[in-house]
From TrEMBL:
InterPro entries: DAP_epimerase_AS, DAP_epimerase_DapF. The record marks 167, 216 as: Could be important to modulate the pK values of the two catalytic cysteine residues. The gene is dapF. Substrate binds at residues 11, 64, 74-75, 165, 198, 216-217, 226-227. This is Diaminopimelate epimerase. Its main location: cytoplasm.
Length: 283
């Protein structure tokens, strides 16, 4: 099977062009685990499949390195946009990508050699009601902003945001002190989150700049999380640290994203997408 490995700020996936390949549905989860394994496979944070779509130019499906399927992936969207444009799956620089979390609009920026250097994605509206995250709550129509949840012997304050996939965002004084590997897995599988959750820590530098770390649902610590960065900016506005319409620089381990939550409700993400390698893999 032919594959292409790409990354967005170090958040790497093995991409399979399902216009040309045919992985059986029942083998997708185990294939993701196998391809993501750094010893027995190619090594990545997961697997992303690019399909034809009935409602958009292309369709993206995302599998974490534990084989679970995610409904969205911001870094993946930018790489899918780059791949689709450079491999002729689309013929325009702006096009729609279907995800299980909803359709989004991507625009690629190309250089003089028609290579994609960066991608801007309208990620759509964040979902903020407890039932939309999903998160168990006494009032399912309530928003979860800076709410205490008991984790081990600590009271952790989280703001819950869905970008098609669920995120629990915390604010911390120093990002260097974020207990990502200690607390991340405890919140990821917390019983308040019936579909589990991506876990983020944010240090606010200014109304236009934050530091960010993530423990991803189904993948653990990654270098970057695009949907998580969007969720972090939304949570920052909800908690009064950031403002709508302001382009926020999000410093992730793997590099920076520019995120804006606009007055019309849509969240915009701009950042790089890069090839690593391509080839054939034996399954
Ligand atoms: N790394 C991805 C997020 C994958 C989300 C996945 N971990 C889940 O929601 O289960 C991103 O750039 O948005």
């Amino acid at each position: 099977m032919k594959f292409t490995k790409m990354h967005g700020l170090g958040n790497s996936y093995v991409y399979v062009n399902m216009f040309n390949e045919n992985l059986p549905e029942k083998q997708l989860s185990e294939t993701a685990v196998r391809l993501a394994d750094k010893n027995k496979g190619i090594g990545s944070d997961g697997m992303i499949l690019i399909y034809p779509s009935q409602t958009a130019a292309v369709k993206m499906r995302v599998f974490n390195n534990d084989g679970s399927e995610a409904k969205n992936c911001g870094n993946g969207l930018r790489c899918v946009a780059k791949y689709s444009y450079e491999h002729g799956l689309v013929t325009t620089t702006s096009f729609t990508i279907e995800t299980l979390g909803g359709n989004v609009e991507a625009t690629v920026s190309v250089d003089h050699e028609n290579c994609v250097q960066s991608v801007t994605v309208n990620m759509g509206q964040p979902r903020l009601l407890a039932k939309e995250i999903p998160m168990k709550n006494e009032h399912s129509e309530a928003m979860i902003v800076n709410e205490v949840i008991p984790v081990y012997h600590q009271d952790i304050r989280v703001t819950a945001v869905s970008m098609g996939n669920p995120h629990a965002v915390q604010f911390i004084d120093s990002i260097e002190k974020a207990p990502v590997k200690e607390i991340g897995p405890l919140i990821e599988k917390h019983d308040r989150f019936p579909e589990w959750v991506n876990v983020e820590w944010v240090e606010v530098v200014s109304p236009k700049e934050i530091h960010f770390r993530v423990w991803e649902r189904g993948s653990g610590i990654t270098q970057a999380c695009g949907t998580g960065a969007c969720a972090a900016v939304v949570a920052g506005v909800l908690n009064g640290h950031l403002e709508k319409e302001s382009e926020v620089t999000v410093h992730l381990l793997g590099g920076d994203l520019q995120i804006t939550w606009k007055d019309d409700g849509d969240v915009w993400m701009k950042g790089p997408a890069e090839y690593i390698c391509s080839g054939d893999v034996c399954l």
